[in-house]
Design goal:
Blueprint (H helix, E strand, L loop, with lengths): L2 H36 L2 H25 L10 H44 L39
Helix pairs in contact: 1-2, 1-3, 2-3
Keywords: Membrane, Transmembrane, Transmembrane helix
């Protein structure tokens, strides 16, 4: 077998191994996050399974499409350079997919939490706080309109 075939085999082994490892880690550790996002264990399990299947399909599809190398590979060093480029792109695609999923699920979670807060009625006040800053100034009042009891009536004008 020539160097290019060995490069393809190494690329497939590394890429498939990375895909399986990352998918298992995300499925195992992401379930807690999904349970918080959806507030329903059954729904979180179902979404987790669907995300893992989608992850496998997208990533393994990309790995197989990106496997072809148009340039001739004559030496082992050229094969390793091409292999590192291909595996690097696979890792970048894996990271981008993961970032997009976490971002989208985080936005969904924030929206759900906002709806829960808006649906709760405000709490009734328990008591009142004393006024701050000392006594309040009293506004001047107008004198009473008529005589008060026990007081002499005003003198008539002359």
């Amino acid at each position: 077998m020539d160097v290019k075939v060995w490069m393809y085999l190494a690329y497939l082994a590394v890429s498939i191994g990375l895909t399986v490892w990352v998918a298992r880690a995300l499925a195992r550790n992401g379930l807690v996050f999904l349970e918080d996002v959806f507030a329903d264990k059954r729904l979180a399990d179902a979404v987790n399974s669907l995300l893992v299947v989608g992850f496998y399909l997208l990533n393994l599809g990309y790995v197989t499409v990106a496997m072809k190398e148009a340039d001739p590979v004559g030496t082992t060093s050229q094969a390793l350079e091409q292999l590192s480029m291909k595996v690097g792109w696979v890792l970048l695609v894996l990271g981008a997919l993961h970032f997009f999923n976490v971002f989208a699920l985080g936005r969904y979670r924030r929206g759900r939490l906002r709806q829960q807060v808006a649906a709760q009625p405000p709490l009734a006040p328990v008591g009142y706080l004393p006024p701050q800053g000392g006594p309040r100034p009293v506004a001047p009042t107008a004198p009473p309109a008529g005589p008060t009891p026990g007081q002499a009536p005003p003198a008539p004008p002359r």
